[in-house]
## 1
Amino acid sequence: MAPVAAVLTAVGRALRRGQKSVWSVAGNNFFLVSAVVMQDAGVFIYLLIGVVILFPLSADPLLKIPAPRLKLLPLTGRELWILRAASPWVNPVTWAIAALGIWAARGKVTAGLWGLAAGMVAAALALSAFGVAPGYGLWRHVPGFPGRLNQLVRKNLRQMLSTLDLCCAVLLAAAAAAFRLTMPALPPDAILILTVLVVLALSSYAGALFGLDGAGGRSRYRLLPVPGWQLLAAKDAAFLAIVVPLTLPLAPLAGLSAALVALAASRNRAVNLPREQVRWRFSTGAGNLEDAMGGLAQAGVMIMAAASVYFVSPLFLAPCIAAWAGSLWWFGRTLDRAFRAEEAQEEVGRFRRPMPRGAEARV
Amino acid sequence: MTTISCRQLTRRFGDFLAVDGVTFQVEAGSICAFLGPNGAGKSTTLKMLSGIEPPSSGEVEVCGLDVRSRSIELKLRIGVLPEDLGLFDDLTVEEHLSLIGDVYGLSRRVSRDRASQLLRALGLEHGRHTFAAACSHGMRKKTSFAMALLPNPEVLFLDEPFEAIDPVTSKIMRDLLQSVAARGITVFFTSHVLSTVEQIATQLIMIRKGRIVWDTPAAEVPVPLEQHYFDLVEAPVVEEIEWLRSPRS
C-alpha cells in the first residue's frame, strides 16, 4: 500500500498547490451571486453546481498525473483500483460538494434520489477512469467565420466550449426554454431573471478571456501583426456567438446588453490581470475578496443594463454598445503593453525559480 | 546591406543581467547561428531582436526599423519561430497556417497553396487536421517553422529550430533555409546542434553569461566547431556517479 499512499500524497500536494478546483467555484460570478442573493432559494443552482462539477474532467484528481506517468508507476491492478476509489477524497471540492448536497437536500430527497446521485458520481468516475472525455473531435466542426480573424474567433469559440461555465449556461438555458414551452405565461420578471442567470453563468469568462491561451498563445499574439483591439474583438465575437443563441428563447436584447456590459466591465481584469484558467473547470476571476466584490459589482451592472433594456426601452442597448466599444478601443491600446509586461514577468520567474511556471499543477 | 543591427543591447530582470551590452550586425542573406549554453541569454536576445521583448537599454534595428516601436510594419516583415512555439491548442496545424495567411493579408488561394507546399515539404501533410494540443513536439515545431516561412518574410528569427526534429526534416529545413538565404533573406537562429550549425551557418556568434565571446564569419571557424565551443564557452565536466555503475544497488 506504500506506493498508493505515496501517489495520493503527491496528488494531494499538487491539488493543494493548484487550489484551482476550489477557487474556480468560489471565484465564479455565477456562484457568488447565487450564494449572496439567492441563499436557501438557490438549491437548484447548488445542485446544478454539483452535477456540473462532477463532470469527469473537473473532479478527478488522478488527472493531475500525466497518463503515461501513471502507466509507468509500479502499481498492481488492485492498487490502481484502490487509488481510483480513494483519489477523489483528496480533493477538497469533493468534500465541499458532498456537504453542500447533504445540506441542500436535507429532508427533501428520497432514498431513490440519493441512489441516483451515487450512481452519477460512480458513472463520472468510471468515465474518467476509462478515459472517455470530450475531445477535439467535436470541435473540428466549429464553423469558420468571415474576415481575417476567422481562425482566432474559431479558436476562441473552441476555448469557451471547454469551460464548465458553458455547460452550466446551456443547462440553464435548456431548462428555461423547456419551462417556457410548457408554461407559456411565464411572468416577465422570471424571463428577465433567467436571461440574466444565463449570461451571469458566462460572465466570469469575460474577465478571463486570455486564460486558456497559454504561454504559447500569448507569444503568438505578440508576434501577430494584429492590433490589440482586434484581438479583443475576436474574443468578444466568440463570447457573443455563444450568449446570443442561448438567450434567444428568453429575452435576447436584454441578454445582449448584459453580455456587452459584462465584457466592458471585466475588460481591465481580462487585459491587465490575466489569470490562467484550466479546461473543464469553471472560469474564475476572483483570487481575493476585492476581486469577488468586483465580480458582484459586475453582476449588478449587468442586471441593471438588462432590466433597463427589458422593462424601459430597447434604446438602453445604445449605451451598452458604447461602453463596450469604448472598452475595446481603450484596452486594445493597453493590450500590447500588458503582454509585454507579462513577458518580462515570465522571464523573471524563469530566471529566479528552477521550476517552470505551472509545473506545480502536475505531479 | 545590414539587416540586423544591435548596439549595447542589454536586458535586465530585476537584479539579474540576462544580456549584457551585446553588439553585433548581420548582413542580408546571412545565416547567423547564435550559440551558447542554456541560460546564456540566446533566447532573450532573439526575443529582443524580434520585438517580443523590450530591451532594458541599447539599440536594435531590423530591416532599418526600430524594434522598440514593435510596429505592425516590422511584424509584417519578419518570421519568428519562438522558444515556446507560439501555438494555440485549439487550432489544427492547417488552421494555424490559415491564420497566418489571413492576418498577413495573403489571398486565400495563395495562402492555401503555400500552406500545402510547406506541409508537404515538412512531412506534416498527414497531420494537417491534428490539433496542436495533440501533436508531438516535433510536429509542433515544424508547424511553427512553417508559420514563420509562410508570409515569405525578409528576416527569419528561429529559436532552436533543429532540436527534436527528425533527420530527414532537419535536412529539408536546412535546404529551405539555405535557399531562402540565397534569395537575400536573413536567417538568425539559435541552436545546440553544432553539426547542423557547421553545415549551414555563414556567421557564428557565441554568447556566454550574457556577453558575446566570439563573432566571426563561419569560413574562419577552426574545425571541429565542437572543440572550439568547449574552449570558448564551457568544457564538459564528467562527474563519476558510482551507484549508476551497478544495477539496482
## 2
Amino acid sequence: MTPEAVAAMTAHLSAGNPSSLHTAGRAARRVVEESRERLAAAVGARPSEVIFTSGGTEADNLAVKGLFWARRTADQQRRRVVVSSVEHHAVLDPAEWLATHEGAELVFLDVDADGRVDPQALAAELAVHGERTALVSVMWANNEVGAVQPVTEITRVAAAHGVPVHSDAVQAVGQVPVDFAGAGLDALTLTGHKLGGPVGAGALLARRGLELTPVLHGGGQERGVRSGTLDVAGIAALAVAVEQAVTERAAVTARLSALRDSLVDGVRAAVPDAVLRGPTGPDRLPANAHFTFPGCEGDSLLFLLDSAGVECSTGSACQAGVPQPSHVLLAMGLDEPTARGALRFSLGRTSTEEDVAALLAALPGVVERARVAGMVGVR
Amino acid sequence: MRVLAALSGGVDSAVAAARAVDAGHEVVGVHMALSRNRAQMRTGSRGCCSIEDAGDARRAADVLGIPYYVWDLSERFEDTVIADFLSEYEAGRTPNPCVRCNEHIKFDALLDKALALGFDAVCTGHYARAGLDDDGLPLLRRSVDPAKDQSYVLAVMGPRRLARAMFPLGDVPSKEQVRAEAAARGLSVSAKPDSYDICFVADGDTQGFLRDRLGSRPGEIVTADGTVLGEHDGAYGFTVGQRKGLNLGRPAPDGRPRYVLSIEPVQNRVVVGSAADLTVGAVDGEDAVWFVPAPEDWIDCSLQVRAHGGAVPVRARTTAGGGLRIEVDDDRLRGVAPGQSAVLYRGDRVLGQATVSAAHPAAARTA
C-alpha cells in the first residue's frame, strides 16, 4: 500500500456505520460518498455508477452472474455468456458455474498468439447469436502476459447488438488510461491491492441504467444490488489509491516501461532461447514481462530465483500452490511442456535498476540448473 | 547441508523436518502434489492428497520457519505408481504401491530434482535408520521402534540413493514420542490420525478402485488339477492367501477351508487349494538391489515379504541376470505372491531387495 492509502485507511478505522443516521454514521457516510466521487472522477465514471465491493472477485461475480440473471429474466432466450479464453478465474469460474447450474451457454473468444482478442470474432459471434447473448466479458488487460485488449472496439461491436459488456480492469487501472464512459462499457471491475490500495476493497462500476440481479442479499446498501455494511476505512483508502494511481500513472509507467524494456533485453541477452510472451509496444502493460524458458519447469525457476532473492511468479497464484500449465498460455497456442516453463516478472513502484541487475546476474545459472532439473522431470 | 524436507502434511514428516533444522541443516520444505484432482478435506485414513494436507504442510513449514513449496509430481505418480498398480493386478500379481512410490517418486523424481536444484539430501518422516557401516557402505537398518519400522518399503531405493536420504525419526522409541515432540514444538498436526490406506484409493475400497479402472473380467475358480469350482468377476479381486469372498458353493472334500494359491492371468483363472499348499519353500526374485556385495554363494539371512509381517530365516544367493533365489525351511512363510517386495535382513540390517517373480510351494520341495 502507498503511504497515502495507509494514512487514509488508518484515519477511518474507527468510523461509524455509514448507513446509520446518527452523527457518527453521517460522518462515515460523508467519507464514503466523497470517496465514491473521487474514485468515479479518476476513472471516467459517475459517482452513482460506483458499487463498492470486497474486491475484484466479488465485483466479477456480481457482473457475470448479475448481468446473466437480469438479462435472462428480461428475455428467456438470452443464455449465451461470451468471455475471452484468457480471463481471470474470477470471471471464468462464475461463467462456468452458470453453464453448469443455470443453463448458460458458455462461449469462448479465442485469442491470437500474443493473447489478444479479435473484435471481428465477436462481431461474427454476435451476428449469429446476438439476440441470445446475455453478456460479453473481456478483461482490459491480461494479468499474466500483459496483453491490453481492444476494449473500445469490443464495446462498439456489442453495442450494435444491444449486448452489455463487462471488463475486468484489475490489472489496467494505474497502468494504462482507463475511462469507463469513454470505453463504452456497461460494467468494469477494479480492486485496491493491485494499485497501491488495500486488500479487501474494490468496486464494480455499473452504468446507471444497467440491470443487475444481486448476488449478496441483505440490507441493500449499494444501489440495492450489493448488501453488507460498508467498509469505510477500506473505501477511503481505495479511493485515495485509485486517484493516486491515475494521477501518477504517466510518470510511473514511463519509468517502469523503460525498466521493463531493459529487463527484457537483459533476459534475452542472458538466455538467448527465452521467448517473450504477449504483445510488444502499447498493447502491453508497462510493468509486465513474461517469458518461457525452454526445458525448464517454472516451479524450479521460481524456487531457484527465490533462493537468490528474486521474487517472481509462474502464472497466477492458486489455491494449493499447485503449478498447473497456464490456461492463458494454452489459449495462445503453446503446448503444455512449453507452458510449464513460464515465468512472469512484475515491476512495481519500488522496483529499481538494482533489482533488475540482481535478476539478470542470477538468471543464467538459475536457468542452467533448472534445465538439468527439468531433464530429470521428463526422463 | 542443504536439505529438502518432504512434507506430507502429517506429523512424522513435520517432526523429521524439525529435527533436520535442529541438526543445523539449511532446510526447505516441499509438499508433493500427487493428484491432479485434489479433494478439499482429508477423508478417512489417507495421508497426503487433499488440499487440507497441503495446508497442514504449509503451516508446519511456517512454524519451523522454513521456506515451503509445492511440487507437482502428479503426472509422474499417475504414470509410474498408479499405472504399475493397475498393470500388476492385471497381470495377476500383488503390487505394493508404497514401495513403487519410494522407488519412482520420493527417492527418484523428488530426489533427482532436489539434487539438480542444489540440495545435498532429502529428509522424510520414514521410520528407518540410514548411515554407513564400518566399511563405509551405506547402511539401512530397521527403526528403533519395531512396530513402526518402514525399512521394508524403503529397501528398493538401493545404496546410492540411500546415501542421499535422511530419516531423523529412525531412532525414536515410539510414535507417541513423535506426537509429544510435535505438540511441544507447537505443530498443529501433533494429533492428526495416522494414515495407512493406499493414498490414491478414495475410500479405502481397493477392489472398487480396481473394478472401476479395469472393468469386469469374468473367469473360473479352479483347483490345482483344473476342476472348476466356481466363477469370479475379475482375477484382480483376489490375492494369494485370501480365504474370504471366494463364494464357492461346494465345500472341499476334506471339509477344510480353501485359499487362493495363485492367479493365472493368461487363462484368467484363480487357483484355490488347502492351507498346506500355501506354504512356500522357495522364492525367485528379479531386479535385485544390494546394500552389501551381491552374494554369489548361499548366505544365511531372514526374509520379509510384507510391510507388516515378520521375517523368517532363509538362505539366499544371486542368480544370472540380476535375479535372486531364496530357499526356506520354515512353515511360517505362506501365501507369497509375485509382485510383492522381498527384503533380506541380517539382524536389523537390510542386505538387499527384489521383486518376487515366482513363489514355489513347499510341497514341491518334499515331493
## 3
Amino acid sequence: MTSPYLTRQLERWTRPNPHLFVRPDWRRFVPQDQDDHPLAFYENKYRPDQPRVPAGSREGGQWTADGAGSQPTAKPPINDPRIISDATPDDDWKPGAQYAQGPPRQPEEWGRVTASNQGKGHHFVPTAVVEALRISDEARRVFDKARTGPLNDPSANWWDNAHRQYNKAVHEELKSYIDKNSIAAERMTEAQARDFIKQLHKSENSYIRSFNLRAVRRHLRFLLLRIGRE
Amino acid sequence: MEDIDRIQDETWAQLHQAVIDTLAQYGTENAFGDGDYWINHDNYGWARIQLGIQNLNLYRPAIVDELRALLRGLPDWAITMAVDVVGKEKSWPLMGLTIRKHEIIDGLRRDILPDVFQTYHYADSRPGTGYD
C-alpha cells in the first residue's frame, strides 16, 4: 500500500502538466542517449519551445522561464494559462526541490534499474515491426534498447487490445521513413535508427502518441513506487 | 528487490516461451492482425502474458485448459486472452479471458460472439471483467 505522501505524488505524476513537477534537470539522471529518452515526450507535448540553459554549465539543459535569462527554477507568472488550466490552487510544488521523506536520495538512485530490469519495458519500435521490415542488425540493436523500462501494473482493463493497432501504426511510420529517405532497410544505420526514434516521439499519429504516453506514465509510476519501497 | 526482479524475469521468459510453443500448434502468430493470434513479447515486469486473439477458435476449452496447465506452480501469474478481431475494434466491447491457476475469469460476451460460444464452458470459471 502507498502512503498518503506517495498517493499525492502519484496524482502529480499522472497529471497532464508534468512540466510543473518533473524535475527540470531530469536529463542528469538518465543513462541513455538524452534526446530520445521517453521523458522527452513531456517536453514535446507541452513546451517544445521552452528555452533551456545552454550546455556547458552545471544547469545545462534545465528549463528556464521565458525571458528569465539563467534562472532555471523561476516559476511562470501565476496567470500563465498552463497553470490556470491544470494546476490546483494548493499546488505549491517547486521544481527541483527535495520532497521525499527520509534522507535525500542520491541522483544515481533515481529509477535505479537492476540487472534483471534492463530488458523490461515497452519497445517503442516493436520487435515484430523490425522483423517484418527486415531491419539491419545495427539498427535492430538501437530499437531493442529504445524502451520505457518496467511499467507499473495498472488497474486498467486487461483485455485492452490497443497494442496491435500501435504495431500497425509504427510499421507504417517506419516504412514511410525508409521510403522517404531512400534507405535500404537491411542497411539501416544506427544514426538512422536513432533519428527515427526521435521522429516517433514527435509523431502526430494518435495511436502512437497516446499509447506511448500511457506507457511512459506507467513507467514513471513504477519508478515512484519503487523509490517509495526502497 | 533484485531477487524479485530476477525471479519475475526468469518466470516471464519461461512462461512466455511455453505459451509460444503451445499456441504454435493451433495457428499462426502475427502482430498486425493477419494471423490467428498475437503474443505481446515485451516484458513489462508484470506477472502475466498477454495475448490478442484474432481467430475465435482459439477459445476452445481444450486450448484454454492447455494454457491454464502452464500456470501450474505459478499461483500469482495469469495469461490474458483479449478478443482482438480485425474490424471489430470499435463495434465490440473489450472482452476476453483471464486465466489463472485456480480460476478463469470469463468475460466473453455470448450475446455478441458466434453461437458456438454458448457451448463453451471453462472449468473453475466465473463471470467477470478485465479488471478482475
## 4
Amino acid sequence: MTYTKTMTGIKNFSIHKKKRTWLKFLIGVVVLFFALWVLNFFVSPIKNVFYILSSPIQKVFWSAGGSSSSFLGSFFRASSLVKENENLRQENQRLLAQVAALQSIQQGNQAQSDVSATCQNSGFKLVMAGVMGLDDNDILSVNKGTADGISEGMPVINQQGVLFGKVFKVYKNYSKIMLVSNKNSVVNVKVQQADISLPEIDGVVKGNGGLTAYLDLVSIASSINPQDILVTSAIEKSFPKDLLVGKINEVTKDDQKPFQQAKISLFSEVTSTNNLFIITNYKR
Amino acid sequence: MWKKCLIIVILFYLFAQLQNSFFAHYNFFGAVPNLVFALFFTSVFFEKKYFCVILLSIIAGLFLDIFSYMQLGPSIVLLTGIGVVLKKVQQLLQNRQDNYPFTYFLPLFVLFFAIYLVLLSLSFDLRIITSIIYSAVFAVLMFYIFKKFRVYDKQV
C-alpha cells in the first residue's frame, strides 16, 4: 500500500516536473518572440548606431582585405598574367577599332548625340559613398544614408559609369545596395554587338548570386556573341540608359526554347572598389 | 561570468566585422566564412549551462541580424533553436573517454550550419556548400583553440 502510494507520488512529481519544464520553455519562447517584436520597432536606429560605431573599423578591415588580397592574388595569378595580357591587348585593338567607327558616327550625328547626352547623362547629381562591407547575399553596405539625401531605388555606379546596383535599404547614416549579381536583381539591358552597324538586342541580366549574373530572355532569332557588351536599356526606367553592365562570355542556345541565355562577366568589380556614386536625381 | 560574457561579445562583434569586410575579399563563389556562427557553435559545443547557451545564441544571432539586410530576429531564433537542440544531441551522444570529441563536432557543425543557411535563404546551392566548407575550416581551428586552452573546463 505504502509502496504504491510512494510510486504514485514519484510519478505525479515527475509529470509535474515535466509540465513545469514545458511551461518554462513555452514562456521562454513567448518572451523571446515578444522581445523581438518590440525590438523590430527600433530596428532602424539600432542598426544605424551599430553602423556608425563600426564604420571606422569596417573601413580599415575593408581596405586591409583589399590590399592583402590583391597582394596575395598576384602570386596565385602569376601564371595566367601572360594570357590575360594577351587578351587585353587584343581587346584593346578591338576597342580602338570601335572608337574609330564611333567617332565617324559621332561627327555625323553631333546634334542628336548632344541632345541625347543632355537628356540622359548630364545633370545627374552624384553622391560619393564609401564601401564598408559586403555580405554573402550580394548586398553591399555604404556609408551614406537618408541624412545625405539617399533613398531606396537610386542607381549606384562607379566613376567609369559601370552599374553596380540600386539602393535597397536606407538607414540614417548608411545604406544597403543590392548588387546586379543579387539573386533578386533583374536589369533590362541592350546587347551592343561588336559590329556597331547591327541593331541592338534586348535582354535582361539576372543575378545568380556569388557575384555572378547571366543574360536571359534574348530572342532565339537574335545573334549574340562572346565579347558583346551589355549596357542598360531605358525600357523599365529603373536605371539611366547606356550604363555599362558586363560582357558576354558564352552563349547557350537551345532551339527548343523561345529564348537564349548567356554566361556573362560583370564589369562591377566589387572587391576592388572603395568608393561608389549614387545618382540621387534620376527619376523613374 | 561577466568577464567571459564581455570577451564573447567583443569577439562576436569583431568576427561580424571581419566576415563582412575583410573576408569579403577572400570569397569563393561569393561565399565568405561565417565566423560568428563558427564561434557560436564552438562555444555552445563546449558550454554546459543552458542559460549560457541561450545567452550565446541571442548575442551571436543579434550580431548576425544587425549586419544583415533582414529584420532583427531570424538568426536569433534559429541560433537559439540550434543551441538547445545541439545540447540535447550532445547529451544523447555522450562519450566516456572524451566529453567533446572532434568526431561529433565536425558532422554536427556541418549539419547545423546547413540547416541554418537553408532555413535562412530557403535555397541550397553551390554558394551554400562553399560557405559550409569555408566556415568549417575556421570552426575546426576554433575547436582546437578551445580544446587546447580548455576554455570551458573551469566554469567561471
